[in-house]
Design a protein that fits this description.
Helix content: 25-40%
Oligomer: single chain
Largest sheet: 5 strands, mixed, barrel
Strand order of the largest sheet: 2-3-4-6-5
Number of strands: 6
Shape: elongated
Strand content: 25-35%
Distance between the termini: 65 Å
C-alpha cells in the first residue's frame, strides 16, 4: 500500500513538472534567430491577396526579413512604418540610425495583417547590418 502511494506521488510530481515546463517556455530571442523567410513587401501583399488564410498560416509567428524604406517613425510606441505597409515594433528604444526616408533591412516576428489599417504587423524587430 505504501509503495502505491509513493509511486502515485512520484507520477504526480513528474506530471506537474512537465505541465510547468510546457506552460512556462523560454522566450524566443528573434534578434539571434535566423530568418525563416526573406521576402519583399509586394510579394507578401501578393500572397495575402491570393489566399490570406494560407499566407497567415505560413508566416504567423515566423521570423521574417524585409528590406524597405522607412516612411514613418513613432518614438512613443518604439515603432516604424515601412513603405506605408509594415508596422514594425522594437523592444527597446529606436536605434539612432533610423531616419525617415532611409532604406533599411530589418528582421522581426510576423504577427499578421490588420485589415482595418491595411498593414502588416511585426514585433521584436531588429536592424540587420
Amino acid at each position: 500500500m505504501n509503495k502505491k502511494i509513493g509511486y502515485g506521488i512520484i507520477i504526480l510530481l513528474v506530471a506537474a513538472y512537465a505541465i510547468y515546463l510546457y506552460t512556462y517556455k523560454d522566450h524566443r530571442d528573434i534578434s539571434t534567430e535566423k530568418a525563416t523567410y526573406t521576402i519583399t513587401i509586394p510579394a507578401l501583399e501578393k500572397e495575402f491577396a491570393a489566399n490570406d488564410s494560407l499566407a497567415f498560416a505560413k508566416y504567423q509567428d515566423q521570423t521574417i526579413e524585409l528590406t524597405a524604406k522607412i516612411t514613418a517613425i513613432d518614438n512613443d510606441s518604439k515603432a516604424i512604418i515601412l513603405d506605408n505597409k509594415v508596422f514594425a515594433a522594437f523592444n527597446d528604444s529606436l536605434p539612432k540610425e533610423i531616419v525617415s526616408g532611409k532604406t533599411l533591412k530589418i528582421k522581426g516576428r510576423f504577427l499578421g495583417y490588420d485589415e482595418l489599417l491595411e498593414e502588416f504587423k511585426m514585433d521584436q524587430s531588429s536592424i540587420i547590418r
